[in-house]
Every structure is written in C-alpha cells, then in structure tokens.
Protein 1
Amino acid sequence: MKIKKNIAISDSGFIFNPSTGDSFSVNPIGLEIIKQLKEEKSGDEIKKHILKTYAIDEATVEKDFYDFLKMLEQNKLSAENEKVN
Amino acid sequence: MEPTTLIAQPPVKDKKGKRRKITVAVTGLNAIDSPGPGVAVIRALRESSEYEVRIIGLSYETLEPGIYMHELVDKTYQIPFPSAGIDNIYERLEYITSVEKIDVLFPNFDAELYNFIKMADKLKQELSIHTFLPTMDQFEARHKSNLVEYGKKNGISVPNSKMIFSTAEIPSLTKEFTYPMVVKGKFYEAAIAYNPDQVASHFNKISAKWGLPIIIQQFVHGAEVNVCAIGDGKGNTIGAVPMRKQYITDKGKAWAGIALDDEKLLEETRKLFAATKWRGGLELEYIKTSDDEYYLLEINPRFPAWVYLTVGCGQNQPEAYVKLALGESVQPMTKYDVGKMFIRYSWDMIVGLDEFEKISTLGEL
C-alpha cells in the first residue's frame, strides 16, 4: 500500500488530508508505519522492522498492521487502486 | 441627466506607488448567526494592496452589526428593502451619491440582486457607480428551480429536482425520487425528509416562510464541499478556493472550514465558468460522493460569508471584484494555501443609544 502523495504528516503524528480536509492523530507506532509507507516500503519490510524493534509477537503485528492499513484505506489516505498487501 | 464620463482603465496606484483611494458601498452587514457576507467583504477590501477604501455600508435593519463596526465601515446609510422596488432604491442611492462619491457598489444578498442587475446600467451612466454583476439571464438560469435544466445545458451533474406547489403532489413524488429527499425553499432553507409526512411538514414550514414553489431534490450521499469563486464574464475563472465545512450551525451555516486541495473540483468550477461566462462572485455548493463524483446542489449568485478565507489563502477575490467593476484587467489567481482554516466567532459590541438613535431616526450613521 502507498500513502497518497499529498498527505501531510507532522512529527507529532498529526495527519492532514488536503483533498478532504480531514485530519487525524496517530500514536508513535502509527506515525512510524505511515512514514515507512510514504517511503514506499513494503508491508513485509515494515512488519519485520516492528518485530525487530518492539517486544511483540508476529500474530499481533500481523493483525494490528492489517487493521491499521484498513483504517488508512477507509479514511482515503491510501493511494487509489492500492489494496492492502 | 447627462451621462457622466467614466474613467476607463483608471490607474490603481499613483506615481508614488500609493494605494488609490476609492469608495465602495457594501451591503450584507448582518454579521449574525446566519451571516451576510458584507463584513467579510469589507475586511478583504481593507486589506487590499492596491486600494485605500472608504466603505459605505448599506443596511436594511437597524441592528445589523456592521453598522456599528466603525473600524470597518466609515458611514452607513439605510436603504429600502428589495421589495420596495427599483425606483425607491434608486432614489435612495441618488441621495447617497449626492453626499458620497461611490465608485463601486458591492451587493451581497441574493434577494437584492434582481434590482441591482436591473439598474446596473443606470447606476453607471447616471451616478457613476460601477458594479460587476451577473447578467439577468445568468442570474435567472441558476435558480434552484432551474438547476436541473442548467446542469443539462452546461454539462454539469445536478441531482434530480422538481418544483411542487401543493402537498397533494407529495404521494406521486416516489415515481421520480427515492427517500430520503431534500425539501428546499425558493430562496433559503432546506431539510431532509425520510417519508411523506416529513415532506409535508417541511413543505408547510418552509413555504410559510419563503413562499412557493417548494423544490424537491434527490438526496445524494456524500460530503458537502463548497467553492468561493469569481469569473470575469468572458468564461475565465479569476479565482477559486474550495472549502469543506468543519463545523456547521443548526442553520447549516459554516462556523469553521478548511481550504481543500481538490483539482477535480477546481476543474468542475472552471468548466462551469467557461460554459456560463459567469460575471462576478459566486459560491458553488457540491456534494462529493464516495466515488469522487461531484453533484452541483446550488449556485449562490454572490460571494459567501466565508469569502475572507480566500484572502487568508492568498486570493483577495473581493479586491478582484472591485478591479473588474472598475474595468481593470485582472490576471487569474491560480494558487492558494491549502489547509488554511477559518473559525468564526461571535462578539458582543457595546453600542451607545445615541448611535442606535441616529440610524433609527435619520437612517444614517
């Protein structure tokens, strides 16, 4: 999945979608994921990074990561025609 | 009366580069919970880089807040309501111009536009007052009751709508519409109805206030997005800023909003200006569906009360209006700051009784 190019992301975790005017707040992990998606890293790369950095099991990462991507998609923050991978 | 010679292409700044002094008469000073655009327009003109404006307020009622905002309005004159007719309004303007030299008249209400459009030539020729209004055809064609036809003619998607004149027509609406539907007044107000009883209730409430017909419009699911824009009357878009309401009052008015980056919406706007050759300011109300399709709900034939956001975003559209009214060429403004917001607030002014007395008895302040 890719994040839309025009989405503004601040270091505090404030996300602004200039196409819809919607804004969101994400926690530090969410921010890390969004930033990596913006750098066009793959889902597997991001999940590996989370598993390596944080004390968490693979099943939880898999589930939470998928939920988070779904949320991004529902809120129209993901680039068009890009499905959750 | 001999027609006054008009200055063509007047210089905006003098030789020293100072802002040129002009006088602009502005209506819509009712900065209330359903605000007129006048105060926002005046703020925009006060911030003009090209004009030093003297503002003449034109009011209808004695409690319009703008009358008492002396830092914004230099002098206010009460004028007759639009229903008083063209002759009475013209007579009043004739009196005002015997005291003030008005360069530009800047009307801000839908209801007064008919009269001002009708008398625009006379105002220019006999009182040297410039306006920049839509033509009567443009003004009439975009009425809510004509919008479906307007959409077809200009290639714009508009939700199906029809006029009804009696509650007896409600049962047969389901032949053309599905619930929910929007029940709209001729000039103002709209409500969503989910069944025939609600349509009847809104019909009675709205028609009692604004008269007939009532317009039934197919409800379209999606987010409402608006555009504040100005056209030069030749098909060019001089400025356009899209906005989404973030906080809406119980009257459906924006109390906060944010400028959007929406190229498709801007393209729709440019398409509309190119097709209609709209002359002057307007507000376009669209619904954007989840499939990113746009349906035009309404064209308000004047700037909206949130027009000051365009200034905040870098497009002084009221200034452009004045320039166009004075016959000066204006380059299209294509850039604006995305993400700029406006947040409206209310403010209690303390006003001496003597001021209220003056506007009430003399019709001037």
Protein 2
Amino acid sequence: MELFTPEFGLVFWMFVAFAILFVVLAKWGWPAIMKSVDDRADLIDKGVEYAQSAKEQLDNARQEAQKYIDEARKQQAEILREADRMKTEIIEEARSAASKEAQKVMDAAKVSIEQERKEARQQFRDEVSSFALDIATKVVRGQMADTKAQTKLVDSLLDEMETNN
Amino acid sequence: MKRTILFLTLLMAMLIPVAPSLTAAEADVEATVQEDEVTSRSEEKKIDPKEIIFEHLGDGYGWEVPFSHELRIPLPVIVRDYQGRWHCFSSSRIGHGQSYTVTDPDGDEMTFRLGGHDSDWHNKLIGLRPELVDGQTQMVEYRPVDLSITKNVCAIFIACILVMWMVLSVAAWYRKQGYKAPRRMHGAIEAVIEFVYYGVIKPTLGAKSRKFGPYLLTVFFFILVANLLGLIVIFPGGANITGNIAVTLVLSLITFLIVNIFGTKHYWKEVFWPDVPLWLKFPIPIMPVIELFGVFTKPAALTVRLFANMMGGHIIVIVLTLLIFILGAMGAAALGGTLVISILFSVFMLLIDVLVSFIQAYVFTMLSTVFIGLAQEEGHHDKHDTDESPAKA
C-alpha cells in the first residue's frame, strides 16, 4: 500500500516547487497573458464592430451620394428646362419688343408723313388760293370796270341777302 | 497518414527502453533455469510483475537509464538522522544494496541504506540506530526525515521548469508583439490557454477570473505537462508524478485552501445553515454535517480522481508490456502472439493515455474552478427572505 501513503519528502518538495512555479507565473506570466488575450479579444470585437459600422456608414454615404446625384440630376434637368423656357421667353420678348418698337417707329413715321402731307397740302392750297385770288382779282378787275356792272352785282347780292332772311 | 505512422513509430520507440531491461532479466531467468545449480539466484531474478509494476509506478533514489537495468542517474539524498543532523550525499552510494556510513563530529557513526524486502520500508531510505533489546545493543532500522531529491521530485522540478519556460515565453512574446496573433509553439500554447481561460475559468468565475485565473492555469499546465512527461519512458519523463498521491494531495490541498480562505459569507452560511426545512438542521444538524463533510470530500475526490486515473493508465500499459514476458515463457508461439497483441494494445492504451492526460488536467482545473466559483457566490436574496423559503420548499 506504499502507493496510497503520501511520502513526506515528496509532499514537501511538491509544495515548494509548485509554490515557486505559481509565484513566478502569477507575477510574470499569467497577468500579462490574460491581459493581452482579453485586450486582444476586445480589440477584435471592437474591430468587427467598427468594420460593421464603417460598412453601414459607407452604405449610407453611398446612398446619400446617390440621393445627391439624383437630386443634382433633377436640378440640372430643371435648370435646363428653365433655361430653355427663359430663352424662348427672352426671344419672344425681344421679338415683341422689337415689333412694338418697329410699330412705334412706323407709326411715328406715318404721323410725320401725314403731317408733312397736311402741311404740303395746306401750303399748296394757300398757294393755289393766292394764285386764284390773284387770278380772280385780275378777272374781277377786268369785269368790274364800269359802274353798271358794279350796281348789278350789288343788287344781286342784296337780293340774295333778302331771300336768305 | 504519414503523421500517424510517424507518431506510432515514436510511441514504439518510447516503449523500447522498457523492453530491454525486461528481456535482460528474462534471459537471465532462462539461463539460470538451465543451470539448475544456483536456484537461489534464479528465484531472485524471476519476473515478479508486482515488483516491476511498483518499481515503475513508485518513486526511486535514482533515475533509470534506458537499455540498462543497473545504471541509475544519481540524485542527491537529503536526510535528517535521529540526532537531528542533516546529511546530503549521492544516491549512487546506496545503490545495489550498499550502505553509506558517515561519522558525525560527535564521533557517532550514521549508516543509511535502502530497505530490503523484509524491511518495513522496502526500497525506502532507512537509517540504523542503536537500541537496547533484551539488555543487548542492536542496530534497529528507522525512517529518517527524508527530503531527498528523488526521481519524482526531480521530475516535478523538470515539469515546473518546462511549464515556466512555456508560459514565460508566451508572456514575453506578448510583451514584445502586442496584439499580434502568435504562431507555431506560442500559438499552440495560447490555444490551450484560451481553451481553459475562455472555456472554463471565464464562464464560471466571470469578473473574478483575473484573481483566480493564475492559480487555475498554473494547475492545468502543471498537470498536463506532468501527465505527458509521465508517458515518455526515457529520462526527462518516465516518472509517475501525477499518479502519485502525494502530488495530487498537494494540488487539491491548495484548491481546498483557496476555496475556504476566499469563501464568501454566503458560502459559509450555505455550509452551516443551508436553505432546507428547519427540522433538517435545527435539533440535529443533519444538513450542516453533510455539507461540512462535503467541504472535505470535494478535495479528497480531486486527489483520488487524478491519482487513480494516471496510475491506472500506467499500470495497464506496464501490465500489457509485461504480458509479453509472462506468456513468453510458455514458448515461441505464445511469445509471438502476445508480442503483437500486447504491443498493439499498449500503443492503443498510450494513445488513450495522451487523451486522458489532457482530460484529467482539464477535469481537475474545471472542478477546482467550480468549487472556487461556488465559494465565491454572493447571496441573491436577503436574510428574511431565506427564512421563509424553507417553508415554500
């Protein structure tokens, strides 16, 4: 039964050796290892988390970018349409302004032509009348040379006035 | 496939050193049997399975050398004689039945030798001291205080140095490399560390794993290395350390001390005033006695479990190897048959022992963790709450 009775020397040395082993490892071995292993596990966890969030952010950013691009495209289209509209408007406006101006110029020209014509006519008339008067004067002078004729004219004029009244 | 073959050949190679010493003995047996004259010698040299098994399982004052039955690596013997003086000498001085005598400064002669077959201390170091028996002075054997560096003690030192080197090299690697993943040997050791630390210690102890982790990891690695060294037959291994009750006793004693020294109030309350109906604990403290008994049976179970498992594994392998020589005496056919079968079986058993080495280290660590964890529990309910719970139960 030698196997079942612990030998004192062995117990003593086992205790001493194990105590030394434990003290050495507890001081310089395990804390460093446990800390590193824990820290590394944390680091890996954090890394995975970070990668996930980064991926999410990237996806979000991509979506956002797509949204911006879409919006920009829409805006571009709108701006282009607006520009087009504005262009036609401006052209239209310019055209109408030009035609109005032309009308105005034409009207002014017409007015001045009319004026000119009126003036010319007046002048012509004045001249014609003065010529006629001259001619008439000359004719009357020739016809009204005797008194008889003059009296006859006065009588006729008086008759006229009487009938009128 | 290649690796398995290599592994098997290695195992075979490990077995070989056991065989020659036995074959030598057996050859002697045959020779002496033919001679017939020296019958007394043949009696001595006959294969004694019990003797061989105990020699391989037990401790010794020297370390066997492969391929030699006689040579031993000498180890220091440290003893304290009956007068309280310490002596230190080489174990080679007491080999082969020699006695070692040293003269004290007082002029007394101190004689030491190994106990013989008829001695109370067979194969242990004994001293002789004069004693008066029936009016005559006779030299009587006594067992001195023996702190020799025996084979097992030396093997414990080797295991400790190996564990220290393994763990410190990993720690140094971490200090140097930071958070990088270790490769090769460091990676393998770290895988085992993580297996124990994250598989057993952390889930059980939680926040306290930093406090008790060093002890539990040290125990695990010490047992694992000691177990595996025990499976190697030649010099650095071959000692049956964890299959020795003294070693497992010390280990479980330390677990016992840690459990009870760091035990919380709740743990002691559970021992002396557990949550059971009042009649189970008041006039006759049945449950407290059982619980108190449990406090001591837990480390006892730890001691015996590791010791018996490792010793059993060693015994089976040795017995299977011995079968070759026991049955071999019957003739060539029996020898051939048992040779093949025994070797196949012992290789198989050794492979299982590799597994058992790991499992037993794991089990010891796991149970220590659980015992420490149970003693670390804080009460989840208040005092008046516990007083009512027995009624509900």
